[in-house]
Amino acid sequence: MGMGNQTYVREFILLGLSSDWDTRVSLFVLFLIIYMVTVLGNFFIVLLIRLDSRLHTPMYFFLTNLSLVDVSYATSIVPQMLVHLLIEHKAIPFVSCAAQLFFSLGLGGIEFVLLAVMAYDRYVAVCDPLRYSVIMHGGLCTRLAITSWVSGSLNSLMQTIITFQLPMCANKYIDHISCELLAVVRLACVDTSSNEIAIMVSSIVLLMTPFCLVLLSYIQIISTILKIQSREGRKKAFHTCASHLTVVVLCYGMAIFTYIQPRSSPSILQEKLTSLFYAILTPMLNPMIYSVRNKEVKGGWQKLLGQLSGLTSKLAT
Questions:
Q1: Across the chain, which distance is largest between two alpha carbons, in Å?
Q2: How far is residue 16's CA from residue 275's CA, in Å, rounded to a whole number?
Q3: Predicted TM-score (pTM) of this structure
Q4: Most buried in the list 108, 137, 186, 229, measured by CB within 10 Å?
Q5: Where is the G-protein coupled receptors family 1 profile domain (predicted)?
């Protein structure tokens, strides 16, 4: 950071969403409610999967990982954003900014790879159902989950290191809600072409490659579903994939739009809205999507609520 007569930046100032106090208070209340729903929703999804033996399958093993990623991603951004909505001096120390970038970028990468892994799981379930339990055995599922976590973390570590080695000079105002990658790179007072290339490469590896694998999986899945003779069979096969496909559309769309072309990146406002989408809406919507659109999860909820109702009745008597 300190190079020659350049000033060492000890902290950054996040400009956030608004300077109007009433607007910030309203956003604080809204985001706090959404964050609480996110944490509780993902916690109950994980708890339900743990308690219901019918959900001890590869699909729900990966869903547990997805819920952990979602709540961790939201936690890496939202609590600090809530604090900054209520204070005037929105400072974040250099080390904290680097840590936030590492965790948010890493968890985002993990989610993209994990969604590709879940697409492969759905591909096997629909296209090769008789060998599903043989192919998607516990050892493979564990290795695929570990690969997701490791690949996202390594990419994030590399991006964080090369980003925070850039000389920032006296630039410390980040026009964003968090220490987001493109927002931090813009602070550099040197040419950032190499960083943009690194962002492009990592976008291809951890964003476009998983997306292409998801696309190929669903081409095969749709082709197989169309060959099913019975209408009921096609409907059942489609419902097997509907929840995952909805989450895929939500997660990949804006990420591709934001990161795949850093030189022609969208406006700062669009970047802020994208970050809000990932940090607040997506982690909240994912458990809802799986709860509403998935019969097994809905059945699990009904069973769990029935057990709790019975237990409450016994305690009351």
A1: 77
A2: 11
A3: 0.85
A4: 108
A5: 41-290
Q: Confidence class of residue 261 from pLDDT cuts 50, 70 and 90? A: low
User: What pLDDT digit, counting tens, does each position of 76-93 carry?
Assistant: 999 999 999 998 888 999
Q: Which segments within 253-298 are labelled E, that is strand?
A: none
Report DSSP state, residue 268. H
Only one residue has tokens 């097994």, namely 296
User: What percent of the chain has pLDDT above 90?
Assistant: 34
| Dist. CA 16–CA 116, nearest whole Å | 32
| Contact in structure between 145 and 65 (CB atoms under 8 Å) | yes
Which range (38-42, 75-79, 274-278) has the least confidence? Answer: 274-278
Distance between CA atoms of residues 88 and 187, nearest Å: 21
**Which residues have CB under 8 Å from 86's CB, separation 6+?**
24, 25, 28
Interaxial angle between packed helices 94-127 and 58-86, expressed in degrees from 0 to 180 and rounded to the nearest 10 = 150
User: DSSP assignment of 220-251, as one string?
Assistant: HHHHHHHH--SHHHHHHHHHHHHHHHHHHHHH
**Half-sphere exposure in the Cβ direction for 191 (13 Å, CA):** 3
* Residues sharing a CB contact under 8 Å with residue 92, sequence separation 6 or more, in sequence order: 11, 12, 13, 14, 80, 100, 179
Q: Which of 33-47, 98-112, 183-197 has the lowest mean pLDDT?
A: 183-197
Q: Distance between CA 67 and CA 13 in Å, rounded?
A: 31
